[in-house]
């Protein structure tokens, strides 16, 4: 369902991604409600942006998302969203103003802003310099967006499994990303059943997992 409110009076519909800012406010990618929700430390839930399924930049409920899955927040309170079925990375100010950081139609292309293309972007994270990293799921790549909105491919190429550098590495539907203080990126490589690690130079290795689905 959908409802703003406090604690158990609030409702979500397949929430997927979460991020927390320095003040303890939680941001949620409420995927099937097509909204980004905000939860105060006291548990009060409100809608930061989004409304019905679609695509629109704008403020608050005048903006539209299509199954947002990943969220990240920077030190200034700006929220970044992997807008999966719009194949875009969106940006939301603390006042709820939504704009498009990068992406356009579904596809694959490096480039600046709307000249770049993604295919089901699922996860986002930020480094200390303000670079955004994207798990570009159906492109099987990890993408990087600078503060100047320039999109490049950090690692990955065709669907598969291979450690290596840059486009010699392969992923199989990467879904989640995180980055540490040194700029090393960590990836949940969904259908390869592995956790991968990427240096700032784009060298990919396997941190954990055997490639076999299971638990051990």
UniProtKB/TrEMBL annotation:
Pfam family, one: NHL
Superkingdom classification of source: Bacteria
SUPFAM superfamilies linked: NHL repeat
Keyword Transmembrane found: no
NHL repeat ranges, renumbered to this chain: 1-42, 64-95, 117-148, 170-201
Signal peptide (from-to): none
Keywords assigned by UniProt, alphabetized: Repeat
InterPro entries assigned to the protein according to its UniProt record, in alphabetical order: 6-blade_b-propeller_TolB-like, NHL_repeat
PROSITE patterns found in the cross-reference section: NHL
Protein name in UniProt: NHL repeat-containing protein
Natural source organism: Psychroflexus aurantiacus
